[in-house]
């Protein structure tokens, strides 16, 4: 008879307090305890009481760590059947509760009940002040307190008042520290049932809040609300100092520290401070040497996930950041931002002292040091001073010869981390910096900046003595030595001196017999790259240099110069003994020997 009521929907047992009806006497008894607050089932370990025996059983599993409900798909175990059922919907995307009116399906029966009100238009209780409608009279009654400002429920601890009794009960837990809602999976306790329900989704992986624009799912309503601002471009949180707006309150909070100079997160290893907890966490990996993100292609490891994602694009060739002005695309967001400024000529970072503009904030920061003129960090060895402590630390290594940064591939050591990072690209062949004009790629930003001047024809470095201009500061420094005759780079083996370090490097190979530039065709080796390039022309048969007088072609500039003498009739080597003339120095010298012997 009792089972038959599940089919007939007969409910003979009625509550004499609220008139709610039930099919079974046991269900009425359990319900009645919500009025009497009776909790006859007590946990022997924590004295926690429950109104239903099944709730006590579920609770006891938090002590025994028993998880008897197993997911057959992924073997994840749960202590509560409800948690398992919620979890199973991840695999099956099951929505067992369907609407008879429009066939829309829902994962929970409560969701279906709410949805059905759209069809039945069951909105019986209307607020006379704002026309808001409610399904239950008690909800309208509570809502009216919003208009009347009535807060009849007062806290006897701090006199704070509330419009709802439930709000007062929740508030009282801030005084009693009571957290009656316990997670069956991890024993974390909460003062509100809603907080426990939200927390439970961490375990079940349930994401019930769906974005109707891009279908991205979220665990919490708050997460969805923040995400929707991406589509609406809403930025409700505005900075009072500079009017910059943010979509998240946390974004504004972090930004305000740029004005207050507040850096509350301090490294306990080196006392460096940060505005964000995340930045401190990333910084700590410098000390721990932790690099948890490894590239599956080349095994290169990174301390940041986004650095790995950027690196992977060097393998895939992906360029997800397109320019909306010229169809160019970039692998890095920073590269796109720099490129866009070539269209807009925008320099958003202005110096307050001299109004000079900069495309990047780092450029402005470096420039400001010119005005302050404060070089507070002095070297104890040579008295050279620096604006920043890290610059002094780097400089000190030129005295101590310390090279703490080692390459994990070839064990070469470096005094600066930046030099190690640059060196690693010789192994990975990574070239993340791309020229906007000709798409040539570079391993280093400095290389790209130098290359860019080829297109702009910019020559900002001028010689004070002869006014010759150069694209690069290094070229000016090298040129200046032609006036001063300075040759600061001396060979330790023969004391020969050179004006350029590269010239010394080439010269040293005459002592070491090193020939690092090898021809792939015939294995012939050269000490200078330029000589290899000339040699390669023998294999390719290329003769790129043409004579303007007769069109003859030559593979090298020297050969062309010697040929041009035949046109200019410059027979510069004349014999003093017999007036014989020669076009070339070598046969002239050989001829001279015939007179001296």
TrEMBL record:
Alphabetically ordered keywords of this record: DNA-binding, Metal-binding, Nucleus, Repeat, Transcription, Transcription regulation, Zinc, Zinc-finger
Location, primary (coarse class): nucleus
Residues covered by the C2H2-type domain: 13-40, 41-68, 69-96, 97-124, 125-152, 153-180, 181-208, 209-236, 237-264, 265-292, 293-320, 321-348, 349-376, 377-404, 405-432, 433-460, 461-488, 489-516, 517-544, 545-572, 573-597
Highest taxon above the source species: Eukaryota
Cellular compartments annotated: Nucleus
GO cellular component: nucleus
Disulfide bond recorded as keyword: no
GO function terms (MF aspect): DNA-binding transcription factor activity, RNA polymerase II-specific; RNA polymerase II transcription regulatory region sequence-specific DNA binding; zinc ion binding
Family indicated by similarity: Belongs to the krueppel C2H2-type zinc-finger protein family.
Name this protein carries in UniProt: C2H2-type domain-containing protein
């Amino acid at each position: 008879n009792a089972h038959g009521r599940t089919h007939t929907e007969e409910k003979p047992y009625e509550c004499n307090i609220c008139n709610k009806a039930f099919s079974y006497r046991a269900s009425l008894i359990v319900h009645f305890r919500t009025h009497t607050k009776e909790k006859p089932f007590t946990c022997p370990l924590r004295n926690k009481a429950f109104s239903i025996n099944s709730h006590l059983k579920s609770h006891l599993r938090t002590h025994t760590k028993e998880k008897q409900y197993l997911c057959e798909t992924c073997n994840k175990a749960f202590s509560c059947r409800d948690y398992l059922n919620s979890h199973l919907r991840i695999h099956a995307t099951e929505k067992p509760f369907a609407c008879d009116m429009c066939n829309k399906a829902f994962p929970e029966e409560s969701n279906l009940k709410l949805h059905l009100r759209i069809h039945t238009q069951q909105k019986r209780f209307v607020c006379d002040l704002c026309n808001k409608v409610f399904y239950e009279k008690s909800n309208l009654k509570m809502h009216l307190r919003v208009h009347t400002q009535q807060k009849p429920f007062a806290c006897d601890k701090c006199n704070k008042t509330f419009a709802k009794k439930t709000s007062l009960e929740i508030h009282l837990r801030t005084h009693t520290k009571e957290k009656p809602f316990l997670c069956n999976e991890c024993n974390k306790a909460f003062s509100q049932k809603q907080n426990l329900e939200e927390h439970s989704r961490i375990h079940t992986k349930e994401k019930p809040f769906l974005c109707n624009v891009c279908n991205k799912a979220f665990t919490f309503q708050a997460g969805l609300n923040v995400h929707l601002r991406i589509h609406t471009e809403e930025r409700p949180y505005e900075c009072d100092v500079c009017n910059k707006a943010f979509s998240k309150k946390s974004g504004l909070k972090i930004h305000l520290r740029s004005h207050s100079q507040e850096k509350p997160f301090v490294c306990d290893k080196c006392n460096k401070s940060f505005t964000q907890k995340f930045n401190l966490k990333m910084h700590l990996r410098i000390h721990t040497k932790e690099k948890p993100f490894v590239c599956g292609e080349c095994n290169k490891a990174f301390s940041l996930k986004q650095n790995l994602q950027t690196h992977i694009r060097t393998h895939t060739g992906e360029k997800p950041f397109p320019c909306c002005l010229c169809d160019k695309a970039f692998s890095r967001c920073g590269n796109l931002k720099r490129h866009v400024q070539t269209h807009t000529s925008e320099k958003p970072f202005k110096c307050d002292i001299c109004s000079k503009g900069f495309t990047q904030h780092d450029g402005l920061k470096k420039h400001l040091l010119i005005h302050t003129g404060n070089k507070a960090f002095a070297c104890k060895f040579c008295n050279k001073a620096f604006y920043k402590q890290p610059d002094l630390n780097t400089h000190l290594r030129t005295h101590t010869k310390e090279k703490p940064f080692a390459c994990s591939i070839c064990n070469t050591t470096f005094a600066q981390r930046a030099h190690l990072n640059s060196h690693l690209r010789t192994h990975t062949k990574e070239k993340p910096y791309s020229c906007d004009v000709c798409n040539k790629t570079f391993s280093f930003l400095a290389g790209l900046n130098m290359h860019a001047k080829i297109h702009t024809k910019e020559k900002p470095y001028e010689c004070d003595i002869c006014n010759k201009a150069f694209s690069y500061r290094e070229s000016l420094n090298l040129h200046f030595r032609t006036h001063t005759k300075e040759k600061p780079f001396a060979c330790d083996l023969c004391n020969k001196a050179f004006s350029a370090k590269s010239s010394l490097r080439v010269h040293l190979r005459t002592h070491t017999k090193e020939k690092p530039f090898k021809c792939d065709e015939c294995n012939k080796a050269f000490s200078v790259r330029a000589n290899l390039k000339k040699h390669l022309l023998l294999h390719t048969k290329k003769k790129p240099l043409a004579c303007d007088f007769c069109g003859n072609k030559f593979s090298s500039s020297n050969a062309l110069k010697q040929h041009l003498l035949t046109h200019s009739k410059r027979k510069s080597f004349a014999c003093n003994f017999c007036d014989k003339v020669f076009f070339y120095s070598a046969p002239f010298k050989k001829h001279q020997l015939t007179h001296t012997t």
